[in-house]
Amino acid sequence: MKKILLALTAVFSMSASQAQLASGSLAPDFTGTDLNGNTHHLYEILASGKTVVMDISAAWCGPCWNYHNSGALETLHTDHPDDVVVLFVEGESANTGAQITGTSTGTTTANFSQGDWTAGTGYPIIDDASIADLYQISYFPTIYTICPTGIVTETGQLSAAAHWDFISNAACSTVAANDGTLLNYSGTTVTCGDANIVCDIANLGSQLMTSATITVTGVTPVITYNWVGELAQFESATVDLGTATVTGDVVITITSTDGNAANNTLAAPIALATEANTHIVIDITFDNWPEETSWEIRDENNTVVASSPDYSANAEGDIIQENIWLPSTGCYSFNAIDAYGDGMQGSQWGNYIDGAMMVYSFGGDIIWDYDGSYDFAEATAGMNVNTVVGVEEVTAATSVRMYPNPATDATNIVYTVNNNSTVSFEVVNVMGERVFVQSMGNQAAGTYNVPFSVENLASGLYLVNVRANNETTTLRLTVSK
After folding, report:
1. Is the pTM of the predicted complex or chain greater than 0.90?
2. What kind of fold does domain 180-271 have according to CATH?
């Protein structure tokens, strides 16, 4: 529903979800036939030394129509015919030819048109939604610039002059004879120690690539891998570089000499797991689409040991807490999943709210803290579980957390009581003086959020004592102004 509503009413210049083909990727090849029956083979165009600017739009899309009619791509096409090929791709699979020519009079995305897209357009129009699928398009318009090296950059709705500035830059326009690069890391992303390092090596050069030396640092022992094979221009191969123990930031580098050293390094996104115990707590505040949110916990064999229920019955703004007891110690991964790919950042769609999710081990460290400020389709955090906590040890206890911390203006004290209890909390400064006391009275089992203003507190460290179930939980609060 979200996508349909936005397709009809919203400006399509929001940030990309993780499903969209990312800038820096190697462009997938395609051959498209335009409305005049001419074929356009991407890799042939690139091999001739030309840059491709591709506007992937939909005939019903208002922002697409506005950019199309700005004349930016028509000017680029007219002014630089020897260097640039502009392609318009109709990316909506449900479209009709009448939508492109503006003769359709329908009112839905399946038959509505902004007008005649062919009028005054001198560059090719390709009616082929499979190209949009190949590039994993999740919104319109998407404007990609594909350099002669084969590398994709989402340049967006630039003017003709700004597009040309990008295209004429040496980083886009220069093709070396020998140019190996590293792309698409696909190895271990979360580890309790060891990691399997896997990535793609690609040939962006004009000559056949037959060998390269690849080094991995930030691990022990340091990996040196001598790759041998045959890659023609724009071809790639997946390389398993081996397994080592992560000791810092992992960087993969082609250390053998080639014609373009600027693209020989790839940072591997490997995170060391957080120390944890077997009692995992998940606090969730839903955005406007709770049904899109789910999570799972996997063990070191990639077996799912816990997963979320269906949250479709929840409402926006609901705050819930999940308590999970893992079966044993070991290395686990927590995976947060958003079915639409925009995380819980509801505010990007208009007058909606952001969600939040915090994952932590009971009485221990925070494993993942998400504040709804960015998109994700799937986010992963690691847990190095080395302590067993039995259910009987925590059923009478209170779970407490604060966010944001450090706080500038205010913080939220979120706590859960598992049975009826009298609840109170106090804030104490480093001199042991109470600066705030509040009684919440007798509260039923559940999760509560108490906003707490720090405007009258000086910068520094404070202790927050929450009392419930005849127990006291103490947290440290940092006030920073």
Report:
1. no
2. Immunoglobulin-like (2.60.40)
